[in-house]
Design goal:
The chain has 227 residues and is mostly helical. 79% of the residues lie in helices and 0% in strands.
Length: 227
């Protein structure tokens, strides 16, 4: 699996930033499957917490893919010839992933209210399938498409994609989103990432964002204090 923890100075910062964001979805999709499988039958307190986490995760993944489909690929495609097929394949994979997400959504709704063992097991299996499918897609995108993005997308266009994602994140979730992005990053990646953030965001992170993110992960992961 592709890792976001690369400090190679020759890697374009677009590629590093995208890998950091992708790592959020890799990690959380894996943890969701594992955490759901660990829920005791009838524990509706845990099932409700994880169901809500799934919804936050799926909204974020949908926003990420929609941002690529609507703002990144249209900018990239005019610069490509045969390589356009690789970008179009990413769009097709987004649609395929949506089918699996819809399946999980229905299973989450069924499991949440009663936390039955048979519903839990079916949901966990669907989450594992989603995780495998998602990781294959993200690996291919980073390997085949992000080098093209680094060549053909300018800084203003790249920033517009990030600003859209920021605008679609609820204000009370901004520090949680920031924590999720930097959780698995290397010190070099973290320094570069924070250097590109506005000063107010860096100050908020130091003052209370780190604590907010820790509370959130403790609530969702329980005894799993780290991923």
């Amino acid at each position: 699996m592709t890792s976001s923890n690369s400090s190679d100075a020759t890697v374009h910062h677009y590629t590093r930033e995208m890998a950091m964001i992708h790592q959020v979805f890799r990690r959380e999709s894996r943890l969701l499957a594992e955490l759901v499988q660990e829920v005791r039958p009838g524990d509706t307190g845990r099932s409700r917490i994880l169901a809500e986490h799934w919804r936050q995760y799926s909204v974020g993944l949908h926003a990420h893919h929609t941002g690529e489909d609507e703002m990144l690929w249209p900018v990239l495609l005019p610069h490509l010839d045969l390589d356009a097929e690789q970008v179009l394949a990413m769009e097709a994979q987004h649609h395929e992933l949506s089918d699996g997400i819809a399946e999980v959504r229905g299973l989450v709704d069924r499991w949440e209210s009663r936390a039955l063992a048979e519903d839990r097991d079916e949901l966990a299996a669907a989450l594992h399938r989603h995780h495998r499918q998602l990781c294959a897609h993200l690996d291919e995108e980073e390997r085949e498409v992000m080098p093209l993005v680094a060549l053909h997308v300018n800084e203003k266009q790249w920033q517009a994609v990030g600003e859209r994602g920021l605008a679609e994140t609820p204000k009370n979730r901004l520090m949680i989103a920031l924590g999720a992005i930097v959780e698995d990053s290397s010190p070099e990646e973290r320094r570069e990432f924070f250097a590109r953030l506005p000063l107010p965001a860096r100050v908020l992170w130091r003052l209370f964002g780190q604590r907010q993110y820790r509370r959130e992960t403790d609530r969702i992961r329980g005894r799993r204090t780290t991923a």
